[in-house]
Amino acid sequence: MNSVSTHAASRRPRFSRANDVWPWLCAASVALSLLMLGALLTLLLVRGLGHFWPATLEEVTLDSGETFAGQAVREVALPQQAGDERLYFTGNQDIEGVRWRWVAIDEIAERTQPDDLIRLDRSPWGDFIGRLVAIEQQGQRWEGDAAWQRLTSLLALPVSQRQDSQLLLTTVDGQTLRQPLASVSSAQAPNAMSVWQKTLAWGDAVWRFLSEGPRAANTDGGVWPAIFGTVLMVILMSVMVTPFGVLAAIYLNEIAHQGRLTRLVRIGVRNLAGVPSIVYGVFGLGVFVYGIGGSLDEWFFSDTLPSPTFGTGGLLWASLTLALLTLPVVIVATEEGLARIPEAQREGAVALGATRLEMLTRIVLPMAAPAMLTGVILAVARAAGEVAPLMLVGVAKLAPQMPIDGEFPYLHLERKFMHLGYHLFDTAFHGEDVQAAIPLVYATALLLVLIVLVLNLTAIFLRHYLRRQRGNEC
Description:
Layout: H1 2-10, H2 21-49, E1 58-62, E2 67-76, E3 85-89, H3 93-96, E4 100-104, E5 108-112, E6 118-122, E7 126-137, E8 140-143, H4 144-155, E9 165-170, E10 176-180, E11 184-188, H5 195-211, E12 214-215, E13 220-221, H6 224-255, H7 260-272, H8 277-300, H9 315-339, H10 343-351, H11 356-385, H12 390-393, H13 420-429, H14 434-473
Antiparallel strand pairs: 1-2, 1-5, 2-3, 3-4, 6-7, 6-11, 7-8, 7-9, 9-10, 12-13
Helix pairs in contact: 2-14, 6-9, 6-11, 7-9, 8-9, 9-11, 10-11, 11-14, 13-14
């Protein structure tokens, strides 16, 4: 009788018929979350990576007879009496004073896409859109197709070998311009390019975005210094937070007497995880920068005062601040992993003659390694996206020097650095040209999301690998 009832109970569904709606609600929540994540990634991919695709250039003639050239960006539907307007990127800021232009669609008489329209990426005036008339070098002159071929070959040379070359350019409305070739970084004729040529140009633009530094107040150029600074800071933060977090968790779970004081400490650690990050930034500024850093300047760098060396924000203080911020995450995750280890494992090791230290290092810690790894990677993922505390303890809009170079001691912990999160914030809200910054904001956000995603996927695969290894050993 008991066996029959036990068998019937084992076949009983986890949810009664009255609660059949709950599995569907859970599944719908998961599907909605995945849909929102997919929509976010799609938006960042289209708006971010699409910015680097060579866009078609148009030559527009208005009813008034005025002519200009540019890239159609978007259209805005206005009230019916006003009509719709289209935004064009026209470049040529040094000639026309502006780079963007709104045009009423009803006022456009003709739109063409001539193959001879070119787009030059220049410094410091930004893009030029128009036509190439000729190129002059050491008394020689090339025109027409020969000028374009000569231009592409010269752009492949170092800047020092292009100092004596001049471009003769003209806008579609007839204005001429002499442009030193040394200040031109790239040239395209997008209307005459095939799909394969555009794909190669897109790949080159993405590579330059990842490998070059920012220009034009962060509205142009790349994000390599920000990538380097973010990765270096996260590595230093991980080296600092991992031993302290793991040792604290071991003490709380394996060594400390499990009484009221220990419970209060655990509550305090979990509450620290919810403290706003800007509070950690204030703490880092007061204790690390002004306190410890100021004392180091007085003891070891008094000859450089009043210019501070460690008494100002830098890579070291930013890494310490984020290590303090992510310390509760590592402690909680590690302690949860230690608590899941069966007590029989500890008792068996001690019964076989192992000391308490041997039991911890050879039995407990290897079994808790997946949880420790999860805590560290979660801390890394959070640190990679933090911005608020970094604004107080070392991040910079533009860092003139990298934290690592060829000068002794090679790693300069006192230097300021760039960070992807702060670069994203600065580009979005403090750029001189908001319209030009929008695509770079999407591209930088996509890069930051991908970094966090890779870190989390790494944690999942490594945790799975360690669990499988422990399973095989057992």
